[in-house]
Amino acid sequence: MIEYWLAALGLMLVIEGIMPFLFPALWRETLSKVSQLKNGQMRFIGLTLMLSGLLLIYWVK
Predict the structure, then answer these.
(1) Which of 14, 22, 37, 48 could form an S-S bond across to 41 if both were Cys, CB 3.0 to 4.6 Å?
(2) Tens digits of per-residue pLDDT, 14-46?
(3) CB neighbours of 30 closer than 8 A, spacing ≥ 6?
(4) Nearest Cα to 60, choosing from 15, 3, 4?
């Protein structure tokens, strides 16, 4: 079971690293804009991402 968790973590790190590796200037600009969002906006984005991930996991299983 732990192998699945580690594989999922590894895949997440690979996916997260694609944008800063390929487009570092764009990534820096995007992070600058994201840091200016209000807390409520950030929470909504986080909730949307979590629900999307859960739906994807549910769909795959």
Answers:
(1) 37
(2) 999 999 999 999 999 999 999 999 999 999 999
(3) 19
(4) 4
